[in-house]
Amino acid sequence: TSSDVCLPYDEVPGVQSCLGELLNMPTTHFEPLKVAKYQKLQYFSRHHDAIKGWSEKGFPTVGSSKPFSNRVVTCFVYLQDSARGGETQFNYGVKIKPRQGLAIIHFPGYLDSVVDAELRGARDERTIHESLPAVDDKYICAQWGWPAPLDRQQALLHTGA
Predict the structure, then answer these.
(1) What is the DSSP letter of 111?
(2) What is the pTM of this model?
(3) What range(s) does the Prolyl 4-hydroxylase alpha subunit Fe(2+) 2OG dioxygenase domain occupy (predicted)?
(4) Start-to-end CA span in the chain (Å)
(5) What domains can be seen in the chain, in order of their start residue?
(6) Least reliable range by pLDDT among 15-24, 26-35, 46-55, 129-138
């Protein structure tokens, strides 16, 4: 568990613009930016950043009723060093220690254009990860991207930004 806040789009246009350049993705495809704080012994159990479907979470893409739309990219940035604890651990033994400015990028869902129709919008199980218990405070910002522009009003409503 952690404390977090989703920031309204108009409060972080510069940050989202930089992330858009890094990810080669228009910012219109982004959810509101989330900032999270983990205090001593707080963690985030094993999870997947892709969600079951756009309609279940209220993130419909503009002009799309495709049931296979899903998050296709995650980028989170450590906002400070954590000397002890708080590592991000992926499957296959990959463990990343928090270092200020380090960006972690992964692709939780298959694109709608993937050749195998069964995989369109499906979760990529290789990206299951967890945040191990913090010893020192840990701060991150997280950005998720979708394969098409989001309905920003709906995204703001569903994230509480």
Answers:
(1) -
(2) 0.88
(3) 34-144
(4) 19
(5) 3-159 (2.60.120.620)
(6) 46-55
